[in-house]
């Protein structure tokens, strides 16, 4: 059992340390002008969820701060009063 484990670990290390595997990575290519378009598109796609979350969070913060300055909730139609709830 120990011999099988050693062989498996050596096989994994040998496969992971081969430099030819790095050439299979699409971003690890020699970056020429043609390859830069792929790199930029990958970076934009990775940044898109972060930017969208920031925009949505910023809008929520802005609307919260704006409604707090008026002294009432920004969305009064979403508030259920005792009269409307039947209690």
Would you give an account of this structure?
It contains 3 helices and no strands. With 87 residues, the protein is mainly alpha-helical. It has one domain. It is elongated and about 75 Å long. The model has no long low-confidence stretch (mean pLDDT 75).
Overview in brief:
By secondary structure, the chain is an all-alpha fold.
Topology diagram in text:
Elements: H1 2-16, H2 33-70, H3 82-85
| DSSP E strands, number | 0
User: Level of helix content?
Assistant: 55-70%
The coarse overall form would be elongated
Radius of gyration: 28 Å
Strand percentage lies at under 5%
Number of domains: 1
Features:
mainly alpha; elongated; single chain; 87 residues
């Amino acid at each position: 059992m120990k011999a099988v484990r050693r062989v498996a670990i050596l096989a994994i290390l040998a496969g992971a340390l081969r430099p030819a595997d790095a050439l299979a990575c699409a971003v690890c290519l020699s970056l020429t002008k043609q390859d830069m378009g792929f790199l930029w598109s990958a970076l934009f796609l990775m940044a898109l969820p972060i930017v969208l979350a920031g925009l949505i969070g910023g809008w929520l913060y802005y609307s919260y701060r704006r409604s707090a300055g008026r002294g009432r909730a920004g969305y009064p139609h979403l508030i259920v009063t005792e009269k409307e709830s039947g209690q």
